[in-house]
Design brief:
By secondary structure, the chain is α+β, with helices and mostly antiparallel strands. It has a domain at 23-105. It has helices spanning 2-20, 92-107, 112-121, 139-163, 195-207, 224-227; strands at residues 22-32, 35-44, 49-60, 67-75, 86-90, 124-136, 165-166, 171-176, 181-194. Strands 1, 2, 3, 4, 5, 6, 7, 8 and 9 form a nine-stranded mixed β-sheet that branches.
Length: 230
């Protein structure tokens, strides 16, 4: 009986530890002309457990009007990513399928927007940095584009601060280049929330679920030969 109580106490402590643990998500995105690189890192317990996703290739497919995304994953602190890579082709049908499924899920949950909004309010943006270098080879047009970019960035930051909690002021910059045609941007974002808040939001979604099984659509299959052009 002593061993049973001890095991029960250990299980309860582990559950409490997980509930009150914070999940930190670090997002790094870099774009330079036709080159893209996206890195996402998930970590808990001060980085003791890490999971990384690297998407080094985002390009327009040569054979169809779609975007081809290639990525790989990494567990822990090793610098070696898994050899197995995942290639996805994002087409118009793919996006419409995702939007249809999201709408279908929303119709099956009462107050889903309220649940999501409350969860986002518990999410903290610890760091947000967004730098851009832009030029079109013409000084006047470059100046106009620079102003538009400042407006877009201000709107996005305002929207983020409305839905999430910002721990510090975001760092933004737009640098015009009047001689060259160049588009370069780098986004660094670190946000954090307690795992217990995510579990609570999931339980609320189950609690307020209405109707039967949602009619979710499967992604349209695409030819593997198209992804070989990556």
């Amino acid at each position: 009986m002593v061993w049973l109580y001890t095991a029960l106490i250990i299980i309860i402590l582990l559950i409490l530890l997980i509930i009150f643990s914070k999940l930190t998500i670090c997002l790094n995105y870099f774009h330079h002309n036709d080159s893209d690189d996206l890195k996402i890192e998930f970590r808990i317990w001060f980085g003791l457990i890490k999971y990384k996703v690297n998407i080094p290739l985002i390009k327009i497919d040569d054979n169809s009007p779609s975007i081809v995304v290639k990525g790989n994953t990494q567990m822990g602190d090793s610098n070696v990513y898994t050899s197995q890579t995942k290639v996805e082709q994002i087409t118009e049908d793919y996006i419409m399928t995702k939007l249809t499924n999201a709408r279908e899920l929303m119709q099956h949950v009462f107050h889903m927007s309220v649940i999501v909004r409350k969860f986002l309010k518990k999410t903290i943006i610890k760091h947000f940095e967004w730098h851009s270098l832009v030029g079109v080879g013409d000084a006047a047009h470059t100046g106009i584009i620079t102003g538009v970019l400042w407006t877009i960035k201000g709107s996005i930051v305002g929207m983020l601060s409305n839905f999430l909690r910002m721990k510090e002021m975001p760092i933004l910059s737009v640098t015009p280049h009047f001689q060259l045609a160049i588009i370069q941007t780098r986004i660094t974002c670190i946000f954090q929330f307690r795992i217990g808040y995510a579990i609570l939001a999931g339980l609320k979604l189950i609690k307020f679920w209405k109707g039967g099984r949602p009619n979710l659509k499967m992604n349209t299959a695409y030819s593997k030969e198209k992804t070989k052009t990556v």
